[in-house]
Amino acid sequence: MAIEITRKKREIGVEIDDLIGLWSIKRELRRIEAMLWLNRHREKEDMGRLKLESFHFAFRGNPGTGKTTVARLLGEIFHRYGILRVGDVVEVDRSKLVGPTPGETEVRARKALKSALDGVFFIDEAYTLAGDSPSDPGLRALEVILKGMEDYRDALVVVFAGYPAEMDRLFDKVTGLKSRVPFHLEFENYTPIELIRIANLMAAREDLEFSDEASLKLLRMMEKRVNQPDFSNAREIRNILDHAKTKMSSRLQSRLKVSPWDMKTITAVDIEIPMEQEESPEEKIEKKKKEMYADPTDHKKRYALASEYAEAGLWSDAAGLMEPLAGGLDEKEAALYGKALYMTGERDKAWQVFKNLSLNRESAFFQGLSALWAGETGLAEDLLNQAASMAPEAAEIHYALAFAAFESKNWGKATEHIMEGLGKKGSTIPPSILRDLPFDRLEVPESRQALRDMVTRSWGQYADTLLDFGKALLASGEEATLPFAMDVLRLVLAERPDDARAHRLLAGCCEASGDLASAAASLEIALEIEPRRTGDWQKLAELYERIDMHDKAESIYEALVNEPTGFGPVTLSLAAKQEKAGELEEAEKLYEKAWGQELDEKEKAFCAERLGVLKASSGHLDAALRYLEAAGDAAISPDARFWHARALIEKGRWSEAEPFLQEPITGNELEDAALYWKIRVFIATKNLYQARRHAGNDGGNNWLKLVKGVVRGLSGDKSAAAVLKELATAGFGPDGLGLFAVGLAGIEEWDLVEASARKARRSDPGPFLWERADKRIVEETAYLGAIATARLGKWTEALEEFRKVYISLRHPAPLYGQAVSLVALGEVDQAKRIFLQLKSAAPASAKKLEDLIRDHSGFRRFLAEKVDPGLLETFVFI
């Protein structure tokens, strides 16, 4: 049976700090990355690498502790530093490596190993390969893998993963394995809080979220489960989430009306705790439900059931239960109803309920939040302040007050409330009610996101909360925020002096306040702590330039641009600067360098567009077309559209060029050229109506006058003669002279057509902005010259010209021209031989030739008139 081996993509864009928990793993990964970074820079200085025999790993840990995720991150790191060409992960286990016979095992193991070349070979439950006996076929698979680790040490990273104790036995049992695996990483179990963060992350990927009640229930479950032997960490969270989704679906299926809140919120009743001792939320609800069914109009019984719904986080059920009695609820009942409406997103209705209630500890916070959503910011702050006095330990109230002050641009008050909130105990997990503040009303997206992060990801963490708040202040772009942002960032640095993010944000504050030297100093410290952040190096170089430290700036730019991978955005930015400064040759070199480095999709498209434009504007239209086609729909700038059309025209792809010239290109040096080629496209596609419409008046440079005259000539307008005859053709190359001849042919100025065709043979190529350089153009113009020669009655010369053109072009039109010339010269038998060639190549021309030959054969030849040159196909190559 064939075993499928699949590659999993490396974690592009994922950073070490994005991992939840895994602190010891992060330290080890940073140590490895630092060594790779140093080796790269030693190579640039012609120094030898710091040598390691190999980069193979043992991952020791329980299931669900992030081993596969870290393997993908390793693939990205090793790819970034040029150790692995691809960096994808191939994941296998015993079933994919061991076959029914030793020979099949060897084939499978070798195939799997080779499929992982240039990437990471991840062997899950690797200890199972050792088996229980010396003859276990898994040992043969291990032999193949060990040999491959030696043979492909420069193109392969092997990861052996499994339980700690079993992995110890594997390394003790297999000779030579320990010496080949220098890195042993211990994956500890996640803490309960980390597992809640993982659960929220998994849910968010499916546009789901846990209610507070569900999160607390899950937290209690994890606190019990983490020390049990069958605990599987994040894998268990995934299973719980899957079961919760199933239960949520079943719960909602029987409802007549399901709100968006219902469809995205996992509640406490959706999470099952195996062997739960105490009465479950469902049992409590069922008991109260039966009591309420006995007397549905009893407010107290409805309130009791609604309270159980609220306790379980079933806010939609609570709101629906109270709604029929909304007009007659007492203060306590109305407060619960308003809270249920607020929690399910019915904030306008919630405000209508709350604004008529007196303040009390239970409802004050929600009254303030409802006022905040209603846009009553001043009233909201008053209500929230009163709520804070009633519940002094509720940190979430101060965070809500901080948001209200931030929205009002009262930066000092916002900072005070954040500090107050940090001084309170608060809940263990981030309250969902804070995730749902009206962040979208803030003007600056970065501020919105930073405040969201503050009340979710950073909840309960002093330094991280201040970092997010400092970022929100700085991102607002308001000068008045800077002193407060600097104050909170200095508090972070007092606790964590080696926090690169804090130094980075402080640099931003200093720059915004005009203290560029301090900004550079702070950024230098940030880069000393985290030296691999390309954007920070670029920013530091820009700061150096602004404080006239040009040598330092130049040194940074040179280092970044010469990195083989990973610094594409910097190179791209420098290329754009050079292009803007008019240094086009240097810009083109930098764009080419960026093209070979790592860029995201948008950056790649921009790079392709600019390379296409620069290549085209220097006459390299073939290369330009490749880049512009790679840019695709992203190449929308006027110069990109023009050069894309021009490159297509050079290939003779006239109809494909038309869409790129549809919108006028105005206000730059390409305006006249764009109009010229637009008219030529319509001529080439035989759309004379559009050509005349765009030709307009007689104005413009020599080239525009030429193309406008040609349009008139092809339309049979005799006034074209005056326009065309007045043109100075000295600067025309073969393409310009050919077009000139086409216009003259339209008004039957055959002597001038003949002269133009002869001149085209002797001319050098014209300027590529205005003329095509295709060698066929000379022969196509020569064909028109042969037509003119025939029109002038010089059939012998015409015959010779048609023969020359046919040899070059291998097109049926000049072959037909030869045959007509032969008939005109009385050589009918030779014309008959050409007729046989034309029958399959050009049936319509063959039919005309057949009629001509018949009229000039036998006794009919005595009655036939002279051959009419009008039989020739004049505008075949227009």
What's the gist of this structure?
It is built from 45 helices and eight strands. It has 878 residues and is mainly α. The strands form two sheets. A six-stranded mixed sheet has the order 1-3-4-5-2-6. Strands 7-8 form a two-stranded parallel ribbon.
| Biggest β-sheet strands, sense, barrel | 6 strands, mixed
The H-level CATH homologous superfamily of the domain at 7-188, spelled out, is P-loop containing nucleotide triphosphate hydrolases
Indicate the radius of gyration in whole angstroms: 39 Å
Shape: elongated
Strand content: under 5%
Query: Which ranges are low-confidence, i.e. pLDDT below 50, for 5 or more consecutive residues?
Result: 1-5
**What is the fold-level CATH name, i.e. the topology of the domain at 7-188?**
Rossmann fold
Q: What class do helices, strands and sheet pairing give?
A: mainly alpha
Gap from first CA to last CA: 63 Å
Oligomer state of the chains in this structure: single chain
CATH architecture of the domain at 7-188: 3-Layer(aba) Sandwich
- Range of helix content: 55-70%
The number of helical elements comes to 45
What report would you give on this structure?
With 878 residues, the chain is mainly alpha-helical. Among the domains are: 7-188, P-loop containing nucleotide triphosphate hydrolases (Rossmann fold, 3-Layer(aba) Sandwich); 567-629, Tetratricopeptide repeat domain (Serine Threonine Protein Phosphatase 5, Tetratricopeptide repeat, Alpha Horseshoe), CATH 1.25.40.10; 630-779, Serine Threonine Protein Phosphatase 5, Tetratricopeptide repeat; 793-871, no CATH class. 62% of the residues lie in helices and 4% in strands. The strands form 2 sheets. Strands 1-3-4-5-2-6 form a 6-stranded mixed β-sheet. It has a two-stranded parallel sheet with strand order 7-8. Helix 5 (138-151) links the parallel strand 4 and strand 5 (156-162). Helix 4 runs parallel beside helix 5 and helix 8 (192-204) crosses helix 10 (233-253). The radius of gyration is 39 Å and the shape is elongated. The model is unreliable at 1-5 (pLDDT under 50).
